[in-house]
Structure formats: C-alpha cells, structure tokens
Amino acid sequence: MSDVLARIRFLVGRGDIAASVHGFRELAADGILSDEAIGGIGSAVVVEEYPEAFKGPSVLVLQRDREGKPLHILWGIPKGADGPATIITAYRPKPSRWSSDFMRRK
After folding, report:
1. What is residue 58's predicted lDDT score, i.e. its pLDDT?
2. Is the separation of the CB atoms in 17 and 49 below 8 Å?
3. Residues facing residue 50 across a β-bridge
4. Cα–Cα distance between 66 and 91 in angstroms, integer?
5. DSSP assignment of 35-104
6. What residue ranges do the domains of the chain occupy?
7. Do 37 and 17 touch, CB atoms closer than 8 A?
8. Are strands 17-19 and 85-91 parallel, antiparallel or unpaired?
9. Is-contact 79 13, C-beta < 8 A?
10. Rounded to the nearest 5°, which phi and psi values hold at 61?
C-alpha cells in the first residue's frame, strides 16, 4: 500500500479531515456526498500518487459510491503538516477518458 494512502486512512480514521474550497465545489458539482468520499477511503485503490507534490503529498484514488459507481478522489496532506487528510478534488471519471477499470488515463 502507498505510504500516502496509509497516512490518509489514519487521519480519516481519527476524524482529522478537511476539504479544500475546490474539493467542496467538485463534490457538489458531481453529486458526490462527503460521507461517500470519507466512508470509501477504506476500500480505496491508488490510481496515481504524488508524494512530492508542491502543496504536500497527495494520492488519486478510485473509490465507489453507494451504488457502486466509480469515484476519483484526490486526497492530500498539507506540506509540512501532520494533517488533516484533505479532499482536494473529486469527480466521477468519464469512461471516454479512462480505461474500463478507471485506473489508467487514455
């Protein structure tokens, strides 16, 4: 498992969670409930990892909503901080832009 994802899961488990303004907007724009994003972290699968991102380590994960539909959530941890686990962005991946398993960009 990714070190970044393990840290995110730990932070979520202790309730140390936030969302960026952009993250809130994107959740709302795609009709994703925050509890789906937060609750799905346990079964999340790493799509892309950015351990050296400018604003802090982050990881794009594939999760599923309550109906089993795919979600991509970009989680991050602010640079130089121990938390919180932050939803940076979230969206419903488009099949035209992703492989059939939503793990690779076309």
Report:
1. 97
2. no
3. 58
4. 15
5. HHHHHGGGG-EEEEEETT-TTS-EEEEEEE-TTS-EEEEEEE--TT----EEEEEEE---TTTB-TTSSS
6. 3-91
7. no
8. parallel
9. no
10. -125, 155
Give the Cα separation of 90 and 51 in Å (integer).
Answer: 18
Token pair recorded at residue 6: 């393990």
21-69 pLDDT, tens digit per residue, is 999 999 999 999 999 999 999 999 999 999 999 999 999 999 999 999 9
* Residue-level length of the chain: 106
The domain 3-91 having CATH identifier 3.30.2310: the answer here is: yes
Q: Give the CA count within 13 Å in the CB-facing half-sphere of 86.
A: 18
Distance CA 26, CA 99 (A): 22
Contact assessment for residue 59 and residue 72, using Cβ atoms and an 8 Å cutoff: no
Query: Across the beta sheet with 58-64, what order do the strands follow?
Result: 17-19, 85-91, 70-76, 58-64, 45-50
